[in-house]
Amino acid sequence: MRGCTFLLLLLLSIAGCMNGLKVAPKVQELGVTTDIALLEEGRKIYVHNCTKCHNALRITRYTEQQWGEILPEMILESNLSVQQSQNVTAYIQAVLHASSGPR
Ligand code: HEC
Question: How far is the CA of 55 from the centre of ligand 1 (A)?
Fold first, then answer.
């Protein structure tokens, strides 16, 4: 019985950890219902284009305001098209909004 409790706690902590450490959550986990294709595209850019010089950084590590300063600079670094910039920006915003409490 004690062994079971331990195992359960272990599983719970692993699950909790994975949840907290999501670098770039999938679009279907964000609870949004509009612009899905656009956001999917944005996530792809985040995972592929934004990892050329560094690893993908956990989006929720930065506030919306910090992203406002970082992102334009990083978009220039990545040579994205206007459309790609809009998509990746929309994706990051969707992630930030999804993680900032009740919807
Ligand atoms: C050409 C290389 C390059 C590409 C491509 C690039 N970055 Fe960066 N990134 C850097 C460098 C260098 C730093 C650290 C220096 C700095 O803050 O300017 C950095 C830092 C960051 C930081 C941390 C900033 C801070 O102040 O802690 C974030 C977040 C970030 N990048 C996000 C992105 C995103 C999102 C993209 C895609 C749109 C991207 N990066 C693409 C080179 C790049």
Answer: 9
